[in-house]
Amino acid sequence: ATPTALMVGTGRGAQLGILIKGPEVLESTRRVDTVVLDKTGTVTTGRMSLQEVYVAEGTDEKQVLRLAGALEHASEHPVARAVAAGAEERAGALPEAESFENVPGRGVRGRVEGHEVAVGRLFEELPPELARAAREAENGGRTAVVVGWDGTARGVLAVADTIKETSAEAVRELRALGLAPVLLTGDNRTVARAVAEAVGIDEVIAEVLPEDKVDVVRRLQAEGRVVAMVGDGVNDAAALAVADLGLALGTGTDAAIEAGDLTLVRGDLRVAADAIRLSRRTLATIK
Ligand code: ADP
Ligand code: MG
């Protein structure tokens, strides 16, 4: 390989908004046939908002919001930020949580106003009215956040994310390059399907715990697939590192950026296609 052509490739990359760790990174893109896309913050903006509140009969809506908001206030998860902001807006100032525990990929738990509160995906069984509310939210592509305390589920909060305007076009471009897109998320299967359908992805791997994302990439590799992974979160870092090509969004966390081979500066997924196109072209010049 001629180093000059590779240097030209990295220079052009910078103009397109692609930061490349080292020229040798371009080599690994040649055989990539699968592109795994994280959902939240990658295909979607990750800027979420509280849309709807459902409560079980006899439950005070403000109490659901206050207890949920108080706990989520202590978490940095995009779902948590939406719940805390929405709760404060609808129910006023939030109480202080007396204890707080983060349950990765599931939610938060802790003590508020003398109750043992859980928020997220922490209840096995829901009463029929709440199960219906959760299903309704999920069918519309919104995340259902279950709120309960002292062992009983008492409310469902519907939290909406927004799909990036450029995501569907990016998926089309990736397909045109011969890559099979896969959507990967810790979120619910129904929500993931709704997002996948909106951007033109058929293959969905959902309800994956943060620490298991890396195993999904390894499994695809074991099937003989050469995998590019695109992600933004702390929970994507290990998968980005193991992938044949890791593309981190510049809008994402430092952990993801450090683990990736390439950084897409603007967080626009179409640039993932540009990156693969550029490196193939650069390599063609060399051969
Ligand atoms: P993703 O893979 O989409 O980035 P995560 O693995 O971080 O998502 O979380 C998976 C799911 O767990 C979320 O979609 C949400 O339903 C639930 N969850 C995680 N953290 C929280 C939280 N702080 N509050 C409520 N729900 C949460
Ligand atoms: Mg993410």
TrEMBL record:
<comment type="similarity">
    <text>Belongs to the cation transport ATPase (P-type) (TC 3.A.3) family. Type IB subfamily.</text>
</comment>
<protein>
    <submittedName>
        <fullName>Cadmium-translocating P-type ATPase</fullName>
    </submittedName>
</protein>
